[in-house]
Design a protein that fits this description.
The complex is a heterodimer of chains A (about 250) and B (about 200).
Chain A (H helix, E strand, L loop, with lengths): L1 H13 L10 E4 L2 E9 L2 E6 L2 E4 L5 H10 L42 H10 L7 H8 L12 H12 L27 E2 L17 E2 L12 H12 L9 E2 L3 E3 L5
Parallel strand pairs in A: 5-7
Antiparallel strand pairs in A: 1-4, 2-3, 4-8
Chain B lengths: L6 H11 L20 E3 L4 E2 L9 E6 L6 H14 L3 H6 L1 E6 L7 H10 L7 E6 L1 H11 L3 E3 L5 E4 L2 E4 L5 E5 L6 H10 L4 H6 L1
The chains are: A alpha+beta (about 250), B alpha+beta (about 200).
Chain lengths: ~250, ~200
C-alpha cells in the first residue's frame, strides 16, 4: 500500500494539466506602488512585472485539476489542508453539478488547494502587492483608485447582498491589462494571506509593529480585502473565496 | 548555497516537488500531512514529521531577531524545564526559520549552541519561502518580511501529539497554566509503556 501510494504520487508529476489556454496569463508591468498596507515604514512598494490569469479559476478548470490529481478531490484532502466544506457546492467529487457550472468561479477552495492548483500549472498564487497593483486598474488607468466613479462601481459590488449562484466569469469589462473580475465576483486568495496582520491584533503577539499601520482609510474595498484575508486560516473554504494564479513575468515576456 | 548533490538529496527534492503528498498512516488532522522540506543545523534535509512518535513543541522564528525570538526560545525552554526528567526526555522541540537566506545551517548551529539547546531533542531548521508559508498556515502563524530584513511575525508555541495533531498552543511566553497542563499530559508515559515496567 505504502509503495503504491508513493508511486502514484510520483506519477502525478508527469501528468501535467494544461488547461490554462482558456485562462491565459496577462502581463502586468512592474511599478512602484503606494499600497494600503505599508511595508514597515515604507509606503511605496516595488512590484516587479508579473503575469496574472485573466479570470478567477473556474469550476471547469478546477475539475480538470482534481481529475488528474486525485489527492485534491473532495473527501481525499486531509482536513488539516481543507475544511469539511471543501468544494461543498459540487454534486460529487468529480461532478461540479448545477450549483457549480463550468464557467463560474470555483469557490470553497482552501489556500492549500489553491497553492496546489497553481503549482500544477507551473504557476503560483499572486502576492498581496501584486494583486493590489492589478486590482487598482480601471479600463483606462493603471491607478484608478482616486477616480470616484470607478471606486463607486467597485463599492457597489460589496454593497450587493451575497447569496444565490455566482455569475460566470468575464461578464464585465476588462481592465487595461486585459484582466477580468478582480472586483465584483469573488474574493481571491493570495500567497501571503498570512502576512496581512489584522489591524486589531494584540500587539504583544507580534515581533515588530510596522504592519499594523493601515493606510488609505477611504480605500474601503481594499481594506475589506485585507481584513478578510488576514482573518482566514489556510484550510478555510469560504463560499465566495476563489483564486487565480500568477507567474513571474520578466522583461522578456 | 551548495546544491544537494547526493541522490538522496535529489530524491527528497523530487518528492517535495510532488506538491503536498503525505507519508502513509498520518491522521487527516495532522500537520504531518504537509510535505515540507526543512534544512537542519547539521545541513541535513528533513520533514515536519522529523519527531513523529514524540510529543513535540514547534514554533517559527528568524535568527537575527534581537528580542522576541530569543524570548520565544527561552520560553520553550522554560516550559520544558517545568517537566520532570522522564517527561522531558520524551519531548522534542522543532524550530522552523522563515529566513532561509540568513539562517543557514552554520547560523542555526550557532543559535542552537547559544541557547544550549539539547541536540538530542532540539532541532533548528529553516524552510524555503513556499514551505515556510505553508507551515505557518498550518500553525496559524503570520509573518512578513520588512525592507530592513526584519520580520513582523506572531509568537506562537504549538504542542503536537506524537502523530502531529495540534494538542494545544499558546501566545503567552511565561506561565500559561493551561498550556503547561497540556504539556504535562502529553509527555506522560503511555499506559502500555507502564505495563512493560
Amino acid at each position: 500500500m505504502r509503495r503504491a501510494g508513493l508511486f502514484g504520487c510520483a506519477l502525478l508529476l508527469c501528468v501535467s494539466v494544461a488547461n490554462s489556454e482558456d485562462n491565459p496569463f496577462m502581463r502586468v508591468p512592474g511599478a512602484v506602488f503606494r499600497s494600503a498596507l505599508p511595508l514597515g515604514k515604507q509606503y511605496d512598494v516595488q512590484v516587479r512585472s508579473f503575469l496574472l490569469q485573466r479570470h478567477p479559476v473556474t469550476n471547469g478548470e478546477f475539475l480538470a485539476f482534481v481529475t488528474s490529481h486525485p489527492e485534491w478531490r473532495r473527501g481525499a484532502v486531509p482536513v488539516v489542508m481543507a475544511g469539511i466544506d471543501y468544494l461543498g457546492a459540487w454534486t460529487a467529487p468529480l461532478e461540479p453539478g448545477p450549483n457549480a457550472a463550468a464557467d463560474r468561479p470555483v469557490t470553497q477552495v482552501s489556500w492549500f488547494a489553491a497553492e496546489a492548483y497553481c503549482e500544477a500549472q507551473h504557476a503560483r498564487l499572486p502576492d498581496w502587492y501584486e494583486w493590489e497593483l492589478a486590482a487598482a486598474a480601471s479600463a483606462s488607468q493603471r491607478d484608478a483608485r482616486s477616480d470616484a466613479a470607478w471606486r463607486q462601481q467597485v463599492l457597489d459590488w460589496y454593497a450587493r447582498p451575497a447569496g444565490g449562484a455566482l455569475p460566470p466569469v468575464e461578464q464585465g469589462t476588462a481592465d487595461l491589462y486585459g484582466l477580468y473580475d478582480l472586483h465584483g465576483l469573488v474574493w481571491e486568495w493570495v500567497h501571503d494571506f498570512n502576512s496581512l496582520l489584522p489591524a486589531d491584533a494584540d500587539p504583544e503577539k507580534f515581533c515588530g509593529s510596522g504592519a499594523l499601520d493601515i493606510q488609505q482609510k477611504d480605500n474601503y474595498a481594499v481594506l475589506m480585502r485585507i481584513a478578510l484575508l488576514g482573518s482566514l486560516h489556510g484550510s478555510d473554504t469560504g463560499r465566495i473565496v476563489g483564486f487565480r494564479c500568477a507567474r513571474d513575468g520578466g522583461a522578456s515576456r | 548555497m551548495s546544491r544537494p548533490s547526493s541522490l538522496r538529496g535529489a530524491a527528497v527534492t523530487f518528492l517535495a516537488a510532488a506538491s503536498m503528498c503525505a507519508p502513509a498512516g498520518v491522521p487527516t488532522d495532522s500537520i504531518y500531512q504537509l510535505h515540507a522540506q526543512l534544512t537542519t543545523q547539521k545541513a541535513a534535509l528533513t520533514g515536519l514529521d522529523l519527531y513523529r512518535g514524540h510529543p513535540t513543541l514547534i514554533s517559527m522564528f528568524y535568527g537575527s531577531c534581537r528580542v522576541a525570538c530569543p524570548m520565544l526560545i527561552s520560553a520553550m525552554q522554560a516550559y520544558e524545564s517545568s517537566l520532570d526528567d522522564a517527561s522531558r526526555a520524551r519531548l522534542r522541540v522543532l524550530l522552523v526559520s522563515f529566513d532561509s537566506a540568513r539562517d543557514t545551517p552554520p547560523q542555526l548551529d550557532r543559535l542552537a549552541k547559544l541557547h544550549r539547546a539539547d541536540p538530542a531533542r532540539w532541532t533548528f531548521t529553516s524552510a524555503s519561502e513556499t514551505d515556510a508559508r505553508r507551515v505557518a498556515a498550518l500553525l496559524g502563524i503570520s509573518y512578513r518580511r520588512l525592507p530592513d530584513g526584519d520580520f513582523d511575525h506572531s509568537l506562537l508555541i504549538t504542542l503536537l501529539d506524537s502523530d502531529g495533531r495540534i494538542a494545544a498552543s499558546t501566545t503567552t511566553l511565561v506561565g500559561d497554566g493551561a498550556f503547561q497542563a497540556s504539556l504535562r499530559a502529553a509527555t506522560q508515559p503511555r499506559t502500555h509503556e507502564d505495563s512493560e515496567h
